[in-house]
Amino acid sequence: MATSRKIIVVVMLLLSNQVFAQLPDEQSTAISNNLEFSNAANLQLEDDATWQTLNSYRRHALALNTAEEAELQALGLLTVLQIDNLLQYRSALGPLISLYELQAIPGFDMATIQKLLPYVSLNDQLGPQYSLHDYLQNGDHNLLLRYGRKPEKAKGYETHKYKGSPDKLFLRYRYSFPKYISAGVLMEKDPGEPWLVKSKIPMFDFYSVHVFLKNFHRLKALAVGDFTVNLGQGLLVWQSHAYQKGASAMLTKREGEILRPYTSAGEFNFFRGLGATCQLKNWSVTAFASLRFLDAAIDSTDIESIIAGNISTSGYHRTATELANRQNVRLLSIGGNIKYTAPRWHVGLNLVNQTFSPALLKVQRPYNKFDFTGSRLIGGSIDFAGYYKNVHFFGEAATNDNLKSAFMIGAITTIAPTVDLSLVYRSFDKEYHSLFTNSFGNGYQTANERGCYTAMAIRLSKRFTIESYSDIYYSPWLKYQKSAPSRGTDYSISGIYTPDKLTVYRLRYIYQTSQQNQAQEGNNIPALGTLTKMNLRFDIQKQLSKSFKIKGRIEYCQFYSMSVQHGGMCFLEAGKGINKVPFYITARIAYFKTENYDTRIYATESSVLYDNSVTQFYGTGWQFYMNLKWKVNRRITCWARFHQTRYPELQKVGSGNEEVNSNHITNIQFQLQYLLAKKN
Predict the structure, then answer these.
(1) Residues 225, 211 contacting (CB under 8 angstroms)
(2) Which of the chain's termini has less CB crowding within 10 Å, N or C?
(3) Is there a contact between 340 and 347 (Cβ–Cβ < 8 Å)?
């Protein structure tokens, strides 16, 4: 058995050609798709934790022969079926002899292995003899400085509505040893925000500090400062990165450790305080406590009944109003989790108690009649995941102190050697409340929705894969711009063709229907009408040589409401490395033409390291950008970026305080990274 296994591995090594790994500045296709769909849903994602984790694993590779399920999940590169197949293979046959032995595991094709290779190895660097001294000596020191500015002067600066300069400043220092320890500090100032002055010392608008210890004997995690909590399937609390339905057909399950260090620039989705996870055999217990101050408008006309309005999640403090709303609400959060884990299944009990001071009270509208108001929000849930034969089941059931519930259940299975199937059903009561939720669904809130999602991935050959999904959902109560219960559908099918290891073609078709208020002739009361949107996209990506890469896209959009509107976009991007300097240059040129805002098109961009950059193409015009990366030496890397969008048919661009008296908008960025990495 062992001899035949070695022969198989040798044959795999001989058949494997050289693979050009993904550059550290690039993100995976799933993350890029997720960013585009999140921006389309008006969710600006500043969470770059997954990106940081992957780059850390480039220097400190994850040991596949000892990696636990949660660590494999944290990579964000494997489905639950692939992870289970790997663990079952390792349990049955022992440690892997070679990384290319992954080809013998069901569900692992060369495309998957290529994605994994830069981040994994077979041997643990420390093994079981780790100590606190090892934690403090084997990690990386990473200092990142970023500056950005738009040269055109927006209306908010000319009218002095914005109280600060248009400069965007970002500073992050982090010491990190993946799987063991992370500590750091982050500072950020957004464009338009003034410097805060304390004792005549200019201060950034936002600060974040964390110390995070992992896998120290029975202490699985200890968080001090800023951290995120991720429970179950996100019905109660989920603050870290999570895939939405447009990212990838099979990425439907929320996965990963409960406590994670918070290292990003977003100013809302995290806790600040203490958290810990302890494990004893099959049981683990997590507890956390947090004290935060959130942004909200305050009504203090009656000193005995001070109330707060809607909580703001943008993190902007540019205008007098935004500054007045800054940190007006104190939020005390206490919660925990008890989990029992057995081979191939687990069950967990979650509880969160949140206290607001002053109490929250929204201006009543018909569509927000059942939104949360008050000073205390208590929620609890039970989550589970497990296997029955080759079917993976997962789900969560949650409720508030008002006894209203949210429920979701899913299943992922392989129905044939080359066919994977995923099903997710969700039902969220209109009166269910949760503040830091991020569940799998159609809306940004886990409330007022019922839906059924079905996805399938078919590997027709080693080179050709088809992914498709359908989502049918219904809202039993009103929503914004929907004066009656509404329904919608999403359908998508994608084909991925990889004729060789250096070329990828993707063709994707999306068809969506939804309902929204529409004015009707002779009727002053708006009624629901059906909206239809179709997107057809073709992508190509090709590695022409080890230092030269191109990619391009053509996308067409059609939107139908009372009439048909059209939109289109195409771009070509090239990246070239100049090893003698050493420089890496990336440039893109794009043309777009859309008839209105409903036919807008989103696309991720190549940018400086850890910058989640997404463009919204709307109107008619051209876009051009150029990125320059200069690796000065082993420790210092610099980036420069010039980005401009031109609208030949316009005299002004933007609206409100962001309006620019010009037909173009420019963005300039500079970034410097000092990385002191231990050689391994």
Answers:
(1) yes
(2) N
(3) yes
pTM, whole model, 2 decimals? 0.93
- How many angstroms separate the CA atoms of 261 and 211, rounded? 7
What would the two tokens of residue 507 be? 């063709």
Terminal-to-terminal C-alpha distance of the chain = 33
Spatial distance between the Cα atoms of 383 and 582, rounded to a whole number of angstroms: 50
Tokens of 477: 């109560």
Alpha-carbon torsion (130, 135, 136, 141), positive or negative:
positive
In the 3-class helix/strand/coil scheme, how is 32-87 assigned residue by residue? Answer: HHHHHHHHHCCCCCCCCHHHHHHHHHHHCCEECCCCCHHHHHHCCCCCHHHHHHHH
User: At which residue do the structure tokens 């939109």 appear?
Assistant: 567
d(CA 427, CA 648): 47
The rounded distance, in Å, linking the Cα atoms of 510 and 507 is: 10
Number of H helices, E strands in the chain: 9, 32
Q: What is the mean pLDDT of each run of 10 residues along the chain (680 residues)?
A: 49 43 68 80 78 88 87 85 91 87 85 86 63 81 97 95 95 93 96 82 91 90 97 95 83 91 95 97 96 91 70 93 94 98 94 96 87 94 94 96 95 92 96 93 88 94 92 94 93 93 93 89 79 97 92 97 94 92 94 95 94 92 97 95 96 94 96 85
Determine how many CB atoms are found less than 10 A away from the CB of residue 124: 17
Residue-by-residue DSSP string for 176-229: EETTTEEEEEEEEE-TTPPPEEETTEEE-SEEEEEEEEEEETTEEEEEEEEEEE
Long-range contact set of residues 474-481: C-beta below 8 Å, sequence gap at least 24: 474/449, 474/450, 475/443, 475/448, 475/449, 475/450, 476/430, 476/448, 476/450, 477/367, 477/369, 477/370, 477/430, 477/448, 478/366, 478/367, 478/369, 479/367, 479/443, 479/448, 480/367, 480/368, 481/516, 481/517
